Amino acid sequence: MSKKAIQLLSPYSFRGLLSSARQDARVIAVDGSWYMPNNPRNAKEEFDNLRLENSRFFDLDAVKDNSSPYPHMLPSIEEFNQSVRKLGIKNSDKVIVYDKTGNFSAPRVVWTFSVFGHENVYLLNNFPEYERYKYPVLKDNDHTTPEPSDFEAKNFDKDAVISFEQFVEIVSNENLRTKYNILDARSHDRFTGEAPEPRPGLPSGHAPGAKSLPFGKVLGENNLFLDSSTLTKIVDSIGVDPEKPTIVMCGTGVTACILKTALDKIGYNKKGIQVYDGSWT
């Protein structure tokens, strides 16, 4: 189980980092926007027309395990290195990830960088708040392709992720699954089976032993993460035990990382948190 936390960064602190950046310690913003298949918004087109200065676009639909039939499975180290090099990101860079929704897909991108050993990666909390303070943004389609880097992932944190086989072993054993917090970030109706999954052909429902914690419950106004006191009350109310290891899941492994971020924020990661990669899909 991984105890590595996702680190939140306010817009004000982000501006402070930018002012202290150097050539050998750059600050690179990464737009990790992604939308559900039933959402008509186009994340790349939005990036081209509105972005933070010196941003790079991280395509969750492209940076994945291309040999897997499932969406958003973690890529191999080689695939990740190749993708990050094309973005011109260096090992020495501080990477600040955001998404246009606020906190939706960006936590998954931060988690991915962290899994591959990039230490200086932060989650901007968040882009709508950044805009609210009228900090500078770019609103044109005139951006140059960055020069490729020699980025090299340091390692792969296998303790941060749980595989299908490992997950099935846990949830199939009643005694074993009671030793974990298993949290599902999908909507409650999808969890209970009352609403369909957004991907055709997938049944709704939930894994044995899982608890429903829709990701929207840990976010407040403008999709900012709630304060620690409120978050603690919410997770305690559904019976989360901070003395147990935790598995977070969702539809494909994207919004599960929102729950991980919330648990990290309140220190409920002492026994480690794993993301179920691929999740309900």
Automatic annotation (TrEMBL):
Domain of life of the native organism: Eukaryota
Signal peptide (UniProt feature, chain positions): none
Database matches in Pfam families: Rhodanese
GO CC terms: mitochondrion
EC primary class: transferase
Boundaries of every Rhodanese domain copy: 39-139, 176-280
Keyword set includes Transcription: no
The protein's name: 3-mercaptopyruvate sulfurtransferase
Organism: Wickerhamomyces ciferrii (strain ATCC 14091 / BCRC 22168 / CBS 111 / JCM 3599 / NBRC 0793 / NRRL Y-1031 F-60-10)
